[in-house]
Structures
1.
Amino acid sequence: MAADYVLTESDIARTLKRIAHEIVEGNPEADHLVLLGIPTRGAVLARRLALHIGDINGVVPPVGTLDVTLYRDDLGDGAMRVPQPTEAPEGGIDDRVVVLVDDVLFSGRTVRAAFDALIDLGRPRAVRLAVLVDRGHREFPIRADYVGKNLPSALNERVSVYVEDVDHEEGVRVER
Amino acid sequence: MKHLLGCEGMSAEEALNLLDTAAEFSALAGRKVPKLPTLRGVSVANLFFEDSTRTRLSFESAAKKLSADVITFTGQGSSLSKGESLKDTAQTIEAMGTHIIVVRHSSSGAAWRLAHSGWLHSSVINAGDGTHEHPTQALLDAFTLRGRLHGDGAIGKDLSGVSVVIVGDIAHSRVARSNVHLLTTLGATVTLVAPKTLTPSEVEQWPVRHTTSFDEALAEHPQAVMMLRVQNERMKGSHFPSPREYIAHYGLSVQRFRKLPESTLIMHPGPINRGVEIFSIAADSPQSTILEQVTNGVWVRMAALYAVHGQEGS
Amino acid sequence: MSDVLIRGAQLLGASEGDLGIRDGVFVPADDIHAGAKKTRVVDASGLVALPGLVDLHTHLRQPGMDHAETVLSGSRAAAAGGFTAVFAMANTQPVADSVGITDLVYRLGREAGYVDVRPIGAVTKGLAGEELAGIAGMANGRAAVRVFSDDGHCVSDSLVMRRALEYVSTFGGVIAQHAQDPQLTEGSQINEGALSSRLGLTGWPAVAEEAIIARDILLAEYTGARLHICHLSTRGSVQIVRDAKARGARVTAEVTPHHLLLTEDLTAGYDPLFKVNPPLRSDDDVLAVREGVADGTIDIVATDHAPHPSESKDCAFGEAAFGMLGLETALSVIQHSLVDSGLIDWSRVATILSSTPAQIGQLAGYDAPLQVGSPAHLTLVDPTASHTGEMRYTASSNNPYLGRSLPGRVMHTFYSGRATVIDGDVVEPDVVGGES
């Protein structure tokens, strides 16, 4: 099974630590930083990133979740999708530097929806995007500020991120 | 689901999805922009053959919070009151381009007819049909109950083991019918209290307990007591000899309220008749959920609109 | 009129034989020359020969509600169903409570020419249940009315019913009661029970029918008058009539085809097509009325054919009119529910659908079915054919049988020797030759 992973558990851990360093370097004003994870797995990754950032500069930034289900542009195409909780981080997002966190960046539509959701939550000072995997095939002009791994893929492939907390396994797989 | 016509036949999963979605919508209350773009471009028509300002406003509010476009038709002064048929009115509205029709009508089965007769493509939400069902009321009642019992941890929870007593004109109450279906689906135990003249026929076949004694039902310490309005016509005439007798036996009087544990929730779909089925000491107590039921009605109706949209034409 | 020779029919469903028709009456088959130029020969092998059917309870809607049905369209529908006589109920607009209206309906029937239309007179003026209608006048008019009914409404006032029974017996007539206590059935939609409770529709309790029947039988016995009960629908009603007959009461009872076949669960989808008065009842009630026909407690089947325009049915259940169509499918439904199930044979069908209703309505010519010398009222049915409930001749479409597989097809009908149905199709008005 381990042979299937393009990113193993330790790869993920190392990558997250590296991203945390990049975030800290790029945002010296630590007290204005907040993380917003997109459920389900983006939220898990956001919490881990926050802890790593805390290890680096001594302050764990507030973490929240941002569910984008209700902002999607493809609703009504199938069964009803129950939205996940959206919890603003402690202190809100007004005048903060918000780092959006998601597991995979693909067409960019999820992030587009996240922008709309974000604006309805408040008025951030700046918005950054951190993703574990960028698999290309953008349909919107969106790029991530912090990328764990670039994984060029074919359209008919599925790039899946598995995290222990949700999937009881850890790793990134490309499936046909 | 393409239509929301009633709680009968709704699975526990569907019910919980609706309640959990409503919970997410309720988080809007604290937001800077308490509005979502989810139903942008969706046209919702409120077809209220039977008037009800409160339910109508609740649905209007729900639709607007989801950025839907709302048009409303009520009985007074429109072609509805001039005898245009249910079929013609609905088809005329749909010809103006609606996706969802919310209908309230005095005939039981009206929503079912609109949904299944082949007259319409739109999704239909039942806002109360005769004495049959009022599903969004039951959903907001369940949502309120769940919220009070489990607080922030309510998401995903059902009502297993919760005991609810419903009192009033059960025979003619669509709120009672919908609540019986939904509460039992969610695992609650329901006891119905009414005089024989206001008890539905063959209630023994319903999945509930029933008694004609309010005090007997209260002695079992239910977690929630739901009081229903009784219409004036029923209190006189042959259903009940006089309002005094009704109040004495079936009203949530000061005396009865004082005997209840402080944790007992007092519910009422509204509007309340103070001094009749419920007295101020109960209605205004911290145990009363009457006002939050109204607030929750908006979230639940948003969930209903969200659940059926996109399914029209399918 | 040409001679007719019917060959090889199963007479009253029993022995095979031939029938001859000349000048409007049955003659010995041997008297007819098959080869003669003007003789029509009908090959009736495999067909059951029944006397022309008589419907004691039909709504022809004319005058006043022509958009739903007329005497002409209703007559054609009746002929298609094998009927040669129909009794037309009085709840027209205006109500048939005087000789002017009953004679009008009678004349319309003769002009149409397909069946003998016997108008029924109202019991009370305007069907209001208060003052007696012009009963004597109607009885002595050209229509010679003998059956009186407020059907659609119940004569619920006990004193009015007593007086009506006494008065009608003066003229040798009979009152046909629509048994429905109005105070127990205010706003009622469907049978009262677990289903009405679940659907939130006001119930129509069985006792509202049974209580009136019981009272009326006692009143009839007390006054010595004849009483006919319309559209019996419950086990309780059947039992009350059975007990009354056992002690010699002069009461007759009818059941509709729909109450012999359809049950209340058809209303679970709120389709007003199945809304009728009295309502469709339970499986047990259907069983009871079938047994009632089999043992003679119920004397006849009458259709209660009730046409309604689509606006009256294409609406919410509570707003819809009560009533179902029935003329064209009556025989099929009876074959399906009573004959094919083995409860009765075709000879009994002839009794319940022809000779007995004629007797109750005092209509001459049906007491010696298919016998030489009797008027040539005849219908030939193919019991092996089947169809899916279509009705082709009525002007309305509230047909509850559409899509349901039913046995039997009326192939030929003769009314006083004149063909009204040939090879399954109703003949055109100019051919049937009604009076102008």
Note: The longest helix of chain C spans residues 206-223.
2.
Amino acid sequence: MPENKYGLIAMFETPAEIVRAAEAVRDAGYKSWDVITPCPIHGMDRAMGVRRSLVPRFSLAGGILGLATGMTLIWWSGAWNFKLIVGGKPLFSPLFAFPVSYELTILFTAFATLLGLFLLCRLPRHYHAVMKQAHYQRAMDDRFFVVIEACDPLYDPAGTRDLLAQAGGREIAELEE
Amino acid sequence: MDSAEPAIVVPAILEEVRPAVLPRPVLVEHHRDFAWITNKICGIVEGPTPRWWWICFGVALFVASFTVAGLTYLVGVGVGVWGVRSPVNWGWAIVNFVFWIGIGHAGTLISAILCLLRQKWRTSINRAAEAMTIFAVVCAGIFPVFHVGRVWLAWYLFPLPNSNGIWPNFRSPLEWDVFAVSTYGTVSVLFWYVGMIPDLGVLRDRFFVAGKRLRAFLYGLFAMGWRGSNRHWSNYEMAYLILAGIATPLVLSVHTIVSFDFAVSLIPGWHTTIFPPYFVAGAIYSGFGMVLTLILPLRAVFKLEDLVTQYHIDNMCKITLATGSMVGYAYMMEFFIAWYGANPNEGFTFINRAFGPYAWAYFTMVTCNVIVPQFFWFKSVRRNTAFVWILSLLVNLGMWMERFVIICTSLTRDFLPSSWGYYSPTMVDIFTFFGTFGVFSTLFLLFIRFLPLMPMAEIKAVTPQADPHAGH
């Protein structure tokens, strides 16, 4: 049958089971796979071998941009474009410019963090093959899933299925694209 | 020199000593499992609208119309319809602004600061508290915009090119306020939304399975396609932590900047360095008062006792007690410095606060802010939910009075007795302010009807059932 297979999905019932299963899949050497949980599970990142998130880099870039924007805006408007002496004070000082720049730092960091989150997760993506699993809404509720993609070099319909079964997976099913 | 070391005598009891096992507080009672949590919270969104909701919504809309009417009348007729006139050129509008912004700060404290402090009990209340923050900022923002007089020129507050070619004065805390409050509102909305993404996914899938395609589509739109992938949770947790980390200095800076509106002036009673920490502590105090006012009835009506437990109520009361005590300490310090500093104007201002024409406001303030929170020392009080609710209303009253006392007593009697006066609000002032409670209630009722009241994913994550090492 020439359907495009996305991969295999297996259901687990407790956090302990899913962590052990994730370790088994990681140790077997799979790279294109994922774990689906209703809430973040402590220790799952290590069990999967997922490296530290790259979101902070976006946040830092946003923060630096925000600080620069604030200082530049205040310098340009008050010491370049329309030089107005207020209270006999200097046209520009990082001290009086600080509160607004501080707020803009935070604002831009927040936007950059959100942008980074969406970009790194490749969201919004309203459709994904895993949603076809028969009991998918329980993935958001109280069940845990392991998904191994067919495009992984180690993927083998029988062998991967065995691995998941040995790890304790239930309702192991093939997902269509 | 001793060649043999004296033998160390190990008491036998040491063999039996083990470190104390501190029991973790139970955050969700009766060992509720994930499915129960999901059903409980989604049930509120999925179920039919209760009749009490319609009644409250109708009343809220009616009260909100007072604000709409008041503001329309203000812009239509002119600034004279408010009570502001010399010497009090800043009256109820600024009091209301600081009041509402202060209330918002507790939401951010619960979401962001308690997150950084790893206080897991925050999970039951943080979404409702963040919603409270956002709606409080909406109510607060009305006042600076409308108190400028020529509201159609309020956009001058932002550094946008205008026909005069002039820019805002960045040396002024009033301008800093524009950026602070805008940033605070925006970041609060972003933080609230990011927190909701996984829960919107839950609702999307439940509506889809139940056949309600339109609602599934609408919730799904905002869920961004969230599918619970751990690779996503990894980024999500990091983003959440970063947002919490930046929201913390944000909330501290916003009310500091608001306090600078007063502190940078010369008026006795205003020109004092105590204002930033004093205002921030007061804001958190008033915000927790409002959180208690909102959460306790919701807990009773929606039967959320297993999720908002006595432990949660105890903690909220204790934080209210702590911040209320800080506010009380600040009052004592102000009096002390007024006496010790030997500035006759400062000394007079504080005597005037307690015994002048606004003494009624002053003693209400002291009763509600210093005496009322002390009740929370007693466990029997904290267990009496109805009494806690009444005390929370008094907290809100007291904090409004505090801002009123600070602003009006200092302005009505400043340096020259020839400038002295008395300030009274007009009916327009009063209706506009009470109407904002209607605006707030309308928004909050819409929130509890259509959005998940509590963060399901976060609550699940702090239950023992989510611990993969449980039992090991």
Note: Chain B has one domain: 31-465.
